[in-house]
Amino acid sequence: MRTRISRILTAGVVALASMFPVSCSSRGDGASSGGPEASGASAGRWPREIKHEKGTTELKSKPKRIVSTSPSVTGSLLAIDAPLVATAATTPSPITDSKGFFSQWAKVADRRGVKSLYGNLQFNMEAIVAAEPDLVVVSSSGADSVADHYAEISARFPTVVVDYSKQDWRKLSAQLGEATGLESKAKKVTADFDQYVRDAKAKIKPPDGDVSIVSFNGAGGQNQAVGKREGPHAKLLEAMGFTVVDAPPGLETRRQKRSDFAFVTYENLAKAIKGKSVFLISASDKTVAGFLADPLLANLPAVQSKRVHSLGPTSFRIDYYSGRQIVDAVVKSFN
After folding, report:
1. Is residue 191 packed enough to be buried (19+ CB in 10 Å), middle (13-18) or exposed (0-12)?
2. Contact 227, 260 (CB under 8 A)
3. Does residue 91 or residue 26 have the better pLDDT?
4. Cα–Cα distance between 301 and 329 in angstroms, integer?
5. Residue 295, exposed/middle/buried by CB under 10 A (0-12, 13-18, 19+)?
């Protein structure tokens, strides 16, 4: 499967043409707030200023037509019932529908009439113009980032840039809630999800011993990765009663380390997996079978006891929808 932890998406095109003036402004001063801030947000007042990864954007009124250039952010916008009219799409694959919408939220988007802004993550400014947005949401990180086009987009439309790589979906939802005037909805979505996790925890009995979270790409595959306890996948599993163990230090291949996963070579993958059970990211039954049959991993306790479980094909990145699917996958394995 093409999609893994370090590379989610690739690129294509859907275009339209038209022009629409907007009475809001964006100021890109290069400053990053490091988190969501909104002047007047707590009181629901407009206009308000939103500090974000590329500066400050003034929104004169509550957005009514939002465009997302990041499929990784789209799920969070849908979860808080944001008035999303279009989203960028990735390349169709086993984890998307035919348009390139991620399968965990594709049906929700279709029910709400969300259109494909452009396909295969091929940036198209004309498509944004044709959508006539009063807010454009951009990611500063990931393969779906169009942050390099921030100046072009923000010159025409109010634009907010978020970084989903340094915050979990809860914090991202709160940030989007402030930008859209849907703060209370963002809080409710988080509370509903937490209750869903508690209900699931009551249905299962976790196995004895620590667990490892693994992104497995097969023999010789690049970007093998082991989840860290500070990452969102680990926190979700620990909320369900599991104890996640990190990879030993010194095995990471990336100079710039991440807080969610340790990337290791295929040759060091067995050394990096210390859990007596293993959860596989972006995995199908075929992925589990390949992991169990890999000769380099044959001596792992999890392999010998066949305690290897899939977190589901949509588990590469957690949003409200994929998070619930991960919970369902865990319950299915341990109920």
Report:
1. exposed
2. yes
3. 91
4. 22
5. exposed
Is residue 156 scored above 80 in pLDDT? Answer: yes
Percentage of residues of the chain with pLDDT beyond 70? 87
What gap in Å lies between CA 202 and CA 186, rounded to an integer?
Answer: 25
Report helix angle 71-79 to 320-334, nearest 10.
Answer: 90
Say which range, 7-11, 14-18, 233-237, has the weakest mean pLDDT.
14-18
Q: Which residue has the tokens 């402004």?
A: 25
Rounded to the nearest 10 degrees, the angle between the axes of helix 71-79 and helix 169-180 is 70
Q: What is the DSSP letter of 290?
A: H
CA 191 to the chain's CA centroid? 19
C-alpha 161/C-alpha 275 separation (Å) is 37
Question: How far apart (Å, rounded) are the C-alpha atoms in residues 189 and 176?
Answer: 12
Alpha helices, DSSP H, located in 202-231: none
The C-alpha atoms of residue 75 and residue 105 are separated, in whole angstroms, by: 6
Mean pLDDT score of the chain: 89
Report DSSP state, residue 246: P
Cα 316 from Cα 5, distance rounded (Å): 6
Q: Which residues make beta-bridge pairs with 226?
A: 214, 262
**pTM score over 0.90:** no
Q: Does residue 37 sit in helix, strand or coil?
A: strand
Best CA proximity match to 24, nearest among 186, 188, 101, 135 = 135
Give the Cα separation of 293 and 291 in Å (integer).
5
280 with 214: CB under 8 angstroms?
yes
Q: In the numeric block, which tokens belong to residue 307?
A: 């305690």
Q: Say if CB 75 and CB 104 are below 8 A apart.
A: yes
Measured CA to CA in angstroms, residue 57 lies from 67, 137, 139, 230, 310 at distances of 15, 11, 15, 31, 41
Q: Which two tokens stand for residue 124?
A: 């198209």
Please give the Cα distance from 219 to 298 (Å, whole number). 13
